[in-house]
Amino acid sequence: MPRSPKAEKAKPAVDLSKPTRADRTARTVKASKNDRPSPRSGSVTVGSASRVSARRPATPDEINELARLWEEFKQNEVSGAREGARERLILHYAPLVKYVASRVATGLPASVDQADLVSYGMFGLIDALEKFDPGRGNKFETYAIPRIKGAIIDELRAMDWVPRSVRFKAREIEKAYSDLESIHKRGPTEKEVAARLGVTLRELHDVINQISFVQVLQLDEILSVGSDRGEQVSLLDTLADRGTDPTTALEGEETRGLLAAAINSLSEREKIVVTLYYFEGLTLAEIGDILGVTESRVCQIHTKAVGQLRLQLVETE
Question: Per mean pLDDT, which range of 6-10, 85-89, 305-309 is the poorest?
Fold first, then answer.
């Protein structure tokens, strides 16, 4: 939305003879390979202005060429000349989008690609080109930067599945922890954090439960480990494998089958002792009362049965 004339008059008059912030930032940006030469012989290629302004202030010819492009873009209706001027203005101010995107990216997780931020910011640049009025005498960079940043933030919010209220609560809790650590020189307790935020302990727990679903990690994210932090592994490599090994499960099933066959080969009394002792959890004395024999006799039967089972399993292997 265009600013009111009163707000526009409060800004200083444009001085195109001095390099802008975007011009200085353009030193690190390579000129686009799609820059097209000017159809006029001897005129300045505005699409490559980032390379020119990175070395020295804009020359009068470059200033005049930029002014001519703005005039063609604003005064002509839908035509080939207007579209050409629009395209060259986008190429000229493209480094400004990369500059804003790099500033926004500093406060975002590493999972957010800066190239995506640049693509979001281009919509803000195009919107600023359409709404900017050169006749007010203001610098386009001053007008466009807030709109480019706003376009990036709006797109990030649209893709964020977490409510803004939860994000705000998370930042408030982080700030409370940081402030209390600075004051007490130690990790704060939950009661201290709740008092700092002006909430009850139960309300603090509810907020923490909401925040616990906010953090999303990538399994292929690289982590630095080791004493010297020189070794790098992915987050997936640090997770314990709690799954069942198919080979181990197959071997266990085969062993149980062999053990059942070996138990069936024992005598009737030996099978009863093994079953009651290992599967029913009875003591040798209790088994002796059931069989009507002494505990020592049950011990002898048990020892003989275990020996036969061990022998049969060894022979099978």
Answer: 6-10
